[in-house]
Amino acid sequence: MFQIERQEKILQYIDKKKKANVNELSALFGVSKVTIRRDLDDLAEKGLVIKTHGGVMSITNKFSYEIPSSSKLESNTEAKQKIGLVAAGMIEEDDIVIFDAGSTTLEVARNIRNQQVTVLTNDIKISMEMAHKRDVTLMVSGGVLNESVYTLVGDQTVDFFKKVHVNKTFLGCDAIDLQFGISNRTMQEVETKKAMIGAAEEVIMVTDSTKLNKKVFCHLCDISDIDKLVINEIDVEYKKELEKKGVEVIVVE
What we know:
- It comes from Fontibacillus panacisegetis.
- Residues 3-58 form the HTH deoR-type domain.
- The protein contains ten helices and 15 strands.
- By secondary structure, the protein is an alpha/beta fold.
- It has two domains: 3-62, Orthogonal Bundle (Arc Repressor Mutant, subunit A), CATH 1.10.10; 74-251, 3-Layer(aba) Sandwich (Rossmann fold), CATH 3.40.50.
- The strands form four sheets. It has a seven-stranded parallel sheet, sandwiched between helices. The chain has a three-stranded antiparallel sheet with strand order 1-3-2.
């Protein structure tokens, strides 16, 4: 069996069973665990499955499952790096910006270069990244730590962002659908993200193309609440539909 054929069958199996581990896939397809891990890495890189400890789960069936931080960081890395570089170029000297939690917003933060900027965030990884930049004034929200994704959540977090006014919010995304709007996998984060949106003069969504044409558990906001979308690739017609709703779409090269 060729690799591409095997990966297609693996994906079909995972979508049907919702999750699978390396041992069962190795036995099922008669190949080594090393080969299976390589196949799963390829599928995860394409955003087709979600890596977990010892295996994977289907991205199409887990609408309300919080994806672990380690899995997010390993998914679509190159696209996120390109998005981060372009989006960081939108930050101006003396801007006050909010970074939503997430692996793509982390890439934006990493690309801030020698600017006087004030950064507000509830993401521990972003906070650690900003702590090494001497020109950045860092403000971290209060809240309770969500250990799987290294973010702060809860009433304290929401109140923190409700009491500020900033130039730009860089917002992550779990799913975009032209009818349903922007949605999030967990209800726990929705109020915080809404407060981040309400605090900003400009809302810039940063996401890779695997999030398009999808709906997950909780509605976050309408597409019209987003000012700009920075993305690695997008269908021409889909781009036009977003622009009709008032979103400026920036496709990174």
